[in-house]
């Protein structure tokens, strides 16, 4: 974290603030005049800037203007005389985070600097997320429709409602809508309305005035003010408390709102993008969501497809997430074998793209070797699948559970043995074969008969060898083939069988 800069010609004020912030383990850098601070701004920026307004030479307002031009997101606290109202107004007009009136209480000053520090770190996280967000990946027709919609909406300020199952990438689409809009250079602020307690959500959205409630020691800007001239993304809008929906409707209707405890209306020039995984129409019918707010949000509706509706994108996404995970860990990216990739493409992934990303992180850390086979995947994926996740399209039959063992739900992101026990569902393997053949034929895969035949033979032999604990002769007898035949097939199919008669 960068240091906090203190700019004041009064050495005693610099000393007091330095010592108080040092007790909070916060680094500081001090300047006795604006000229030196402006020179330092050419080579970097602080995390928070605290500056007196009246000093010999250039004023703190000039420093405020220079800092905001070079670093718009930098919180600046202006120190001013208690009776200098004009300076306080000028500071706010110049974009100051807050002003500190002399004489000030040291503890109050530290608390104000801490709030500015939190604001600075939050803005830095948003900027980092914006810079690190990858392009949305997808070649499936359903995703191409989404890309076209983003393109058509790129020059519009219209409100957008994004719907889709959890994990389909709704926030990525919201960021893309902002990135390609005329507001791209302005703030993008995201808020998950389901993650904020009801009592705090109103203040988070609209801000509050000093003394508005117990603990409100200073005025605080809400997300609407933070997103001024930019975009505000409201995730999980379907979970917003009913009484707050009325206030949101007011903002969408006429663009005005009040801070909590405030009496002065504020104007919001903000584009609102909302998202939900819930059925808002049903929530309206159930009396849980205002119908008029629903119609205000549902100006343009953008539905994101689930991953099972775009299976052809699974290989592309898998390679991307494996490369991304490897880069984060500083290791070489794992590669999926054709059989393993085919296996993944047959899974339903109820958690959608997020679940696939988590699986790729698991593979990067846990899978042995650089080339990942089906046997290297989490055991719960390969041994059984829950009823909500139909059996994967794979020619490797699932093994029956041993006596007294209950098959577990497929969850590749927990340590094996810690999942809740649920019954496993078994599909008709002939039907799965037909589905797999249809997918391969539709994709134009070559030599479908040979490819599926090899997988079929490999699955049978592997299962027989496991059943006989690797004894080839016994496995051949059980399968009804000769010993020479099973030996040749093991070599041709590349089956690893260390045990023998």
Beta-strand residue fraction: 5-15%
Q: Rounded to an integer, what's the Rg over CA atoms?
A: 30 Å
Extended strand count: 14
Distance between the termini: 65 Å
The average pLDDT value, as a whole number, equals 81
Query: Looking at CATH, which topology of the largest domain would you report?
Result: Rossmann fold
Percent in helix: 40-55%
The domain count comes to 4
Largest sheet entry = 5 strands, parallel
Shape: elongated
Please, what is the CATH homologous superfamily of the largest domain?
P-loop containing nucleotide triphosphate hydrolases
CATH architecture of the largest domain: 3-Layer(aba) Sandwich
Largest beta sheet: strand ordering: 2-1-3-4-5
Q: In CATH's first tier, which class of the largest domain applies?
A: Alpha Beta
- Show unreliable segments: 129-134, 384-427
Based on the structure, what is the oligomeric state of the protein chains? single chain
What structural class results from the helix and strand content? alpha/beta
In short:
By secondary structure, the protein is an alpha/beta fold.
Task: Describe, in plain words, how this protein is organized in 3D.
The structure is a single chain. Helix 1 (11-23) links the parallel strand 1 and strand 2 (28-31). Helix content is 45%, strand content 11%. The protein starts with a strand and ends in an 8-residue tail after the last helix. The strands form four sheets. Strands 2-1-3-4-5 form a five-stranded parallel sheet, with helices on both faces. A five-stranded parallel sheet has the order 7-8-11-6-12. The chain has helices at 11-23, 34-41, 60-70, 85-93, 106-132, 141-153, 170-179, 198-206, 223-226, 242-254, 280-285, 291-297, 314-329, 338-345, 352-366, 379-383, 429-442, 448-467, 472-479, 483-493, and strands spanning 4-7, 28-31, 48-52, 76-81, 98-102, 160-163, 188-192, 231-235, 256-257, 266-267, 271-276, 300-303, 335-336, 371-372. The chain has 501 residues and is α/β, with parallel strands linked by helices. It has 20 helices and 14 strands. The protein folds into four domains: 4-120, 3-Layer(aba) Sandwich (Rossmann fold), CATH 3.40.50; 143-305, Rossmann fold (3-Layer(aba) Sandwich); 309-430, Helicase, Ruva Protein, domain 3, CATH 1.10.8.60; 446-493, Arc Repressor Mutant, subunit A, CATH 1.10.10.
